[in-house]
Design a protein that fits this description.
15% strand, methyltransferase, S-adenosyl-L-methionine, transferase, protein C-terminal leucine carboxyl O-methyltransferase activity, EC 2.1.1.233, globular, binds S-adenosylmethionine, 9 strands
């Protein structure tokens, strides 16, 4: 009988990174329960509303989700949905279901995460008809093709893979018929920061080299050199979660540089304080009435430590006005 592999440090480190999937989904579940935005599907992945989150955290998630959605929607509009989307480190994200409901579907929506996370997501999808039905209802010939670590249908595919292992990732995406000739949107929301700068730069280079028409939207930490950044790093380390990519999160320039040096043509980065101030202000006023915010300064600090960076290739360039910022 094969002997069991010993438990290694990297298993522990990866386990701590995988646990961040629940941080994101429980925060999104809580904020939607308070009415910050509507997500009809997160409840099927996270049943309990869970512990109360501070208003600044909810406002931070609001800015993150609204900002990412505006960029995703601008890409879909620009390509008239003749495109595909690849969500890297998707966790329990529900964007596919939102796009389906809004009838702005790319040709195919791919998600990638560690096999253990994917297995959990597939279990939720299999056992909850509101999640599984939208996957197959459009074509009578369509069906769900499932194994433990992948699920495939005509429009939606979820793949278990390690983003640091590019040959395996490429092979799996090919197996599920990714089409490099189609305009392709890559998303990474709080994901690259868990990889070393070398690993994330290889990933960003691979996308640039493989997909002639592409856009990459990355949301993660920025301005991490100060005391606030240090506390964030220490808090995560206490949970054995290492921000291995934090060196790229020093400034908006360092965030942009990883795309520029990989040959992306046009690169923009905004900190979340700026994004928050250019979101549709009527809706911002609405959410600011939901909960009393005691410490405006804390919200500002939080928003100054996250950013959205987007890079494009081959005339997919999107100006701020086209995005709605
Ligand atoms: C903070 S969570 C964010 C989840 C989702 N993007 C969201 O914003 O709701 C980070 C996700 O990235 C995944 N991840 C991190 N490193 C990864 C890697 N090397 N390969 C695959 N997935 C990875 C984790 O498992 C986790 O689900």
């Amino acid at each position: 009988m094969a002997s069991k592999q010993p438990f290694t440090d990297s298993d522990t480190a990866d386990e701590a990174v995988r646990a961040t999937c629940d941080d994101a989904s429980t925060c999104k579940r809580f904020a939607t329960s308070k009415g910050y935005w509507t997500d009809l599907y997160v409840q099927y992945f996270v049943r309990q509303i869970g512990e109360r989150k501070a208003p600044e955290i909810n406002r931070g998630y609001y800015g993150r989700v609204r900002g990412m959605n505006l960029l995703i929607d601008a890409f879909l509009k620009k390509t008239q949905c003749d495109c595909q989307v690849v969500n890297l480190g998707a966790g329990l994200d529900t964007t596919f279901w939102r796009l389906k409901d809004e009838n702005v579907m790319p040709k195919k929506f791919f998600e990638v995460d560690f096999p253990m996370i994917v297995a959990r997501k597939i279990h939720h999808i299999k056992t909850k008809p509101p999640l599984s039905k939208p996957l197959i209802e459009t074509h009578s010939t369509d069906s769900l093709r499932l194994d433990g670590h992948s699920l495939d249908s005509d429009r939606y595919c979820i793949i278990g893979a390690d983003l640091r292992d590019l040959p395996a990732l490429e092979e799996k995406l090919k197996k599920f018929q990714i089409n490099p000739e189609l305009p392709t949107l890559f998303l990474s929301e709080c994901v690259l920061v868990y990889m070393t700068p070398e690993q994330s730069s290889k990933l960003v280079n691979w996308v640039a080299d493989t997909f002639p028409a592409a856009m990459f939207i990355n949301y993660e930490q920025v301005n991490m050199n100060d005391r606030f950044g240090q506390i964030m790093i220490e808090n995560l380390l206490r949970r054995q979660c290492n921000l291995a990519g934090v060196d790229v999160c020093q400034s908006l320039d360092s965030q942009k540089e990883r795309f520029l040096s990989a040959g992306w043509e046009s690169v923009n980065a905004l900190d979340m304080m700026t994004v928050y101030s250019v979101l549709p202000q009527e809706d911002v006023a609405r959410i600011e009435r939901l909960e009393f915010l005691d410490e405006r300064e804390l919200l500002q600090q939080l928003l100054q430590h996250y950013c959205i960076c987007w890079a494009v290739k081959d005339k997919l360039s999107l100006g701020l006005s086209q995005i709605g910022f």
